[in-house]
Amino acid sequence: AVVNQKGGAAKTPTTICLAAVFGRAGGSVLAWDNNETTGSLPWRVERGDHASSALQVLERSSHLLSDTARAADINAFVHRQTADKYDALFSDQDIDGEHEITADEVDVLHAVASKYFNVILMDSGNNHRAANWRQMIRHTDQLVVTATTVEDRVEGARLTLQGLAGRDERTAQLAADAVVIVSQEQPGHEKLAQLHAEKFAPYVREVHVIPFDPALKDGVIHFGALRPATQRAWLAAAASVAKGL
Question: Which pLDDT tens digit goes with each residue over 206-224?
């Protein structure tokens, strides 16, 4: 799970880049936008030739989980990232929609995702009290906490870790074993990013700094468009995540 209870903390770029590293390395990888309403993952990745989202997966979950389902059946619901070799599951993009993903529906979606994919990266919303957010944590094997060099995003990361550390024994262990990723918001923030990273280091398993890269700022993110130093930084971060899996 990729988390920070503050918006604009680079959760979605982090989910995408980690998925790209795992996808390019081989295996079956899903980036899942686990937002209770409308998330931003669909804005930053390639769209397939359909408009399916998690809601359509829920509608067809009985078939997808049945013995008669074929491996290719999931392709009608996820959006293939051709160069980066992973798939994306969108949140509902209907701006007039009223449905909010429930805890039980997270269980169903996770069951489907687990059947068809080996690695699942769950992008999250900002409401750490939402039922789908809390159920996502129950399914989490490795916690990834994001921050940028903007102070309130750092505070959001700190509060997220603090909340999980104080909830129960399992979430406390997730927080202690977390990987924190600090993304530089602007050019020239190298020292500031390192300073924030050093503050997190005593409380989590590993911390990584991602350099500023204009290819991460806007539009669809393609891993191959990132600068070499940025690619190496994401590779190192993904290696830390892999240790927890």
Answer: 999 999 999 999 999 999 9
